[in-house]
Amino acid sequence: MKEKIHWLVFFLLCVAATTTQAQTSPCNFTNFDAPNSTFTSVSGINDSGVMAGTFGDQNGNIHGFILRSNALASFDFPGSFRTETGQINDLDAIVGDFVDGQTFVQKGFLVKNGQFTTIVAPGADSTRAAGINDQGVIVGTFEGPTGEHGFAKIGNQFVTIDFPNSSRTDARGINNAGQITGTYGDQNGGNHGFLLQNGQFTSLDFPGTSGVTSGLGISPSGIVVGNYFPGAGHGFLERNGNFETADFPGGSQSTIPFGMNASNTMVGGYVNSGGQNHGFVAHCSVP
Predict the structure, then answer these.
(1) CA-CA distance, 255 to 25, in Å (whole number)?
(2) CATH fold of 2-15+26-284
(3) By the 8 A CB rule, do 140 and 130 touch?
(4) Torsion of CA 80, 138, 68, 61, to 10 degrees
C-alpha cells in the first residue's frame, strides 16, 4: 500500500536552545523543540544531519517531522489517528508507526520520496517499525498470539528476532553493517539491552544494574545508545562493553537517546525537572 505524503511545511523560526557540558557526561547537549509544540522527541539523525522526530500540537494531535537545512516539515500517515517516527537513513527514508484512523490498529510505515508504504508483520495484531539502514533493511516489533517479537524486514521477507529464552523482544535500531540493537525481557519482568551481530546475541546491562537497561539505537560504528534505571532514567553510550552515562544537564528527570550518526551526534528526548518533554541534539565523545 502506497500513498502520497501530505506535507505541511514551515520554517524553524527559533529553537529554544542552551548548550552545556555536563560534568559527568561525554556529550554537549542542546535542547530542541518543534515550534508551538507541547512535546518533542527526536528519533533519528542521518550522516547528513537530517533529523526525524515526533511532536504534539496544541490540539493534542501527534505528528511526525523531518528537519532538513533548518526547515521543519510535519507529516501524517494519510487517515491516521497519530503518527510517530523512528530512524532515518542516509537516503532520507523514515520508518515509524501510526494508528489507523478507522480500525485503530497500530501499523508500521516507511516514507521515502514523499510516498508512504504500510508495514504489517504476518499474523501481527500490531506492528511498529523502528530502524532502517541504507540497504533498506527495516527492524521493529510486532505483537501477535505468541507475544511480542522483534523482526527484520529484508525486501518482502520478514525474519523474526527473539533473544534466547526471553519473554519478549523489541528490535530498535540497525546500521549498515547489519548490527541490530534493542531490548528483551527476562522471565522476571526485567529489561535488558542486546546487540545482535553475525547471528550472535550479546546481552547489555549498565554496570551495577540488572533488569533496567534498554537498547534504543546504534551508530554506524556500532555505538549502542539507550537508557537505564533505577532512580531517574539515564541515557548511555556503549561500545565493546564500555558504558558511559549521558544525561541532559540541569536536573532532568529522564534522558532517552534514540539514535547516533557517524559524526557521533546523538538525538533523543528528555524530561526536564518540571516534567515537560523536550527533544535534544548532543555532540558526543565515544567510549
Answers:
(1) 12
(2) Neuraminidase (2.120.10)
(3) yes
(4) 20
